Amino acid sequence: MIYLDHAAATPVCRKALEAMKPYYMEEFFNPSSPYLPAKKVASDYEAAKAEIAHAIGAKGNDLVITAGATEANNLAFTALSLDGSCRRLLPQDFANANILGVPLRRHHPSMLYLETEHDSVRRVAEALGGTTIKVLPSGVIDLQDLRDKITDEIEMISVSLVNNELGTIQPLAEIAEIIRRVKLDRMKRGLKRQLLLHSDASQALNLLDISVARIGVDLLTLNSAKIYGPKGVGALYMSHEAHLHPLVTGGGQENGLRSGTENVPGVIGFATAATETKKHLKSNRKKYQKLKKILLTELQGYELVNKKHSIDNFVVLCYNGIDAERLIFLLEERGVYVATGAACAASKGEKSHVLSAIGLSDAQIAGSLRLSLGELNDAEQMHEAARVINEVVALERKRVNG
Amino acid sequence: MAKTVYVGMSGGVDSSVAALLLLEQGYKVVGVYMKNWSEDLPGMKCPWAEDLADAKRVAVKLGIDFEVWDFEKEYREKVVEYMLREFRAGNTPNPDIMCNQEIKFKLFYEKAMAAGADFITTGHYARVLWAGPAGLSSPKILQSKHFGGPPRGPSPAHVCLARAIDENKDQTYFLYRISEEALRHTIFPIGEMCKPEVKKLAKERGLHNAYKKESMGVCFVGQVGMKDFLKKYIDVRPGEIREVESDKVLGYHEGAVFYTIGQRHGLYLNGMKGEVNDGMPYYVVAKDTKQNIVYVSKNLNDKRIWVRELKLRDMVFRAGPAELSSPKTLQSKHSGGSPPSPSFTYTNLSVRLRHRAPLIPAELDGNTLKFAQEIKRPASGQSAVFYLDEVCLGGGIII
Fold first, then answer.
1. Contacts of B39 in chain A (CB under 8 A)
2. With an 8 Å Cβ cutoff, are A348 and B56 in contact?
3. pLDDT tens digits, one per residue of A202-217
4. Is it the case that residue B256 has pLDDT exceeding 80?
5. pLDDT at position B335, please?
6. Which residues contact A90 (CB under 8 A, 6 or more apart)?
7. Nearest 5°: CA angle at A30, between A27 and A31?
8. E-assigned strands of B75-222?
9. Contact A326 B68 (CB under 8 A)
10. CA distances from B293 to B45, B92, B296 (A)
11. Bridge pairing between strands A314-318 and A368-372
12. Helices B222-233 & B81-88, crossing angle to 10 degrees?
């Protein structure tokens, strides 16, 4: 097997798995229980949270643990106020907007989001009446478009740190600087309205050295499943400026922002994975640069889609005139697993909004393959993958041209 | 030059093997997934995206072209609307029969022919036979190079729809209304095979869906989902369930349209112990859709359940074997449309009243089907399909 889809899922690293094990059958106690063994679990949990927070230069208390990045992204939007009034968004507002598809009645759009965001941001933002910020053909945010669209009503801006289809790294520090100026201007004019920066960093933690202070975000989404931790765990970092409202209420865990008995093993695994990935940040980057080079040298007849500003483990290829989904099935038969963002059965026939946004034609979108490298890969695999991909592309070209 | 055939590929094993066989026979094969329905329903996810992926995966494996044809709008208009109309009228329609008549063997057929097809193919268990002066002939699939279309030689008279070799899987009940024109250009490769052979072949050729669970009944909701489906589209009111003999109210129902004559399950009667729940089941024997009343009975011999005759409407007559069309026994030298003459009789028919139900001897007099013995009455809206030996002669919808 040659697995080239680490952006979709990563295997749990051995250290994380080992760290999680005791919390299933021995240290299974509910952290809220009063007796000492349970208190030990509670303190292990808090320590793990602090460890995750440490990976982004924050404190454990700044994090809300969620059941994955999607929930964290949803939770981030509760920082919006309703219609500029004092009333905060309530869970029922989300339910109405998300489930029933009833847009919240707002006189003005109060939020901006990048047009290439993941669906877990896009769907909520759409439902809440947000406005999109354009990207340049490189996939990088159009900062001028951002400047033009930050009106006085805007309360929140959501821009992912690394795009999940292209691997494009967004210049968050520059965005934060623009936001700082706007805030300053608002203060000068006596306008009291929050302006928060949210970023979905799901794809970023394993290769980028993230510090919330340096990138200047108020809200940051983290995902365990993409960094060799267990699935079903995520976290939302929040600065002291962001005031969230729970989407899940109950026993009041996570400072009342996310009720439900803590996923202790999940968080322990997440923390271990975060520390591990942070440790190997530099060497991993070098490794992926090397592997990427092998692919780009040995592959034939492609056009590189993510040429610039891309994270080191993403390779997006375009084979013009070819249906990339057919390539996926041909590759799968040969034990090579890759992804596509193109119109395909797996994505219910919707073509990729990301590839459309950077100006690819329908034919180019249909011919695009995403390879995302990871721990499971080595140089030998890259040679073999390039050979197999070249072979199936030739096969398809032959079929198409008769 | 190789003939071109468009195969309706559902993602299931039957249509996959159909495509495989045609390809091995030397046809130019194009796979098409017909996207007829994609909406999820309460409690069930519509599997279309997975089915499409399965179909495409097979097409890629076979190295054939593959397209998705979107018939959602037409399916809704021609099949779903028909179905809802029938249910509202108190009938129990069969959407699969309508789907074959209006979508697969009409829209798909027409679009395929316009795209340059010589033939269309589906994974149905049925056969196409050609009736000529020399009798019935079957272009043998697994032996000859070209098995589609009329056999060569003296001009064959007409095309017949015949039951599959695998009696257990035969699907002609769902196909009796398809047009002769489409049938002339149809190949049913699977009709010459038994299901285990089909599965074995799929497995041998490494088709991943060899073990895929097949869809049953109404293609998009299944038996269980029908009630939920109808609730979404038909405005129903709760009403009374009455015992037909006494007119006593025994319970209440969610809407008369949900009930079918002969139905035994899903009746929630709230009568007194011993009076209702004496171990003998109640059956639905009649519905009054206007008053919204469902009538039940414990009498298994109720004359509304057991009948000797059925009246039919919207009858379709298919071509039969030429040598059998002598005036006394059978007049069938025409295809589709109206009966041969106002007063005609088919004396020695076999009739099927449900998919896979046993064949029952009957005669047809005008629009009345007469049986030698009493039969359990099928619901109105269902079809009665006629056969003479292996050939399907048409059918009609039970009034």
1. none
2. no
3. 999 989 999 999 999 9
4. yes
5. 42
6. A245
7. 95
8. 119-121, 126-132, 135-137, 158-163, 186-187
9. no
10. 33, 16, 10
11. antiparallel
12. 80
Tens of pLDDT along B12-21? 999 999 999 9
| Joined tokens for residue A198 | 């949210």
- Rounded to a whole number of angstroms, the CA Rg of chain A reads 22
Alpha carbon B201 to chain centroid distance? 25
Domain boundaries, chain A: 14-278, 281-401
- The CATH code that applies to domain A14-278 is 3.40.640.10
pTM, 2 dp: 0.85
Query: How distant is the Cα of B198 from the closest Cα of chain A, in angstroms?
Result: 22
Question: What's the pLDDT band for B305 if we cut at 50, 70, 90?
Answer: confident
Distance from CA of B56 to the nearest CA of A (A): 8
List Cα–Cα distances, B144 to B24, B26, B46, B150, B273, in angstroms.
Answer: 11, 11, 39, 13, 67
Domains, in order of start, for chain B:
4-221 (3.40.50.620), 224-297 (2.30.30.280), 306-398 (2.40.30.10)
Ranges of residues in chain A with a pLDDT under 50 are 84-86, 99-103, 105, 107, 343, 345
Residue B133 CB contacts under 8 Å (≥ 6 apart), including other chains: B154, B157, B322
Distance CA A197, CA A182 (A): 12
CB atoms B56 and A399 under 8 Å:
no
Would you state the pLDDT for residue B330?
Answer: 41
A-chain residue closest to B63, CA distance: A399
Give, as one character, the DSSP assignment of residue A227: T
How many Cβ atoms sit within 10 Å of the Cβ of residue B327? Answer: 9
Phi, psi of A359 (to 5 degrees): 90, 20
Inter-residue contact B91 to B98 (CB < 8 Å): no
Q: Which of A325, A327, A329, A401 to mutate to test the interface with B (most CBs of B within 10 A)?
A: A329
Q: Tell me if residue B219 is catalytic.
A: yes
Sequence-distant (≥ 6) Cβ neighbours of residue A394 within 8 angstroms: none
Residue A326 touches chain B, beta carbons under 8 Å: yes
Question: Structurally, what CATH architecture does the domain formed by A281-401 represent?
Answer: Alpha-Beta Complex (3.90)
* CA–CA separation, A319 and A96 (whole Å): 42
Residue from B99, B160, B194, B392 carrying the catalytic annotation: B99
Amino acid at B97: I
Helix (H, G, I), strand (E, B) or coil at B27: coil
φ, ψ of residue B351 to 5 degrees: the values are -125, 140
For residue A80, what are its two tokens?
A: 């919006």
> Between A332, A345, A399, which is nearest B52 by CB?
A345
- ipTM, two decimals, is 0.83
* DSSP 8-state class, residue A218: S
C-alpha separations of A191 from A182, A185, A187 in Å: 11, 9, 6
DSSP state of A309: S
Indicate the helix (H) or strand (E) that contains B314.
strand B306-317
Q: Nearest CB to B53: which of A330, A333, A345?
A: A345
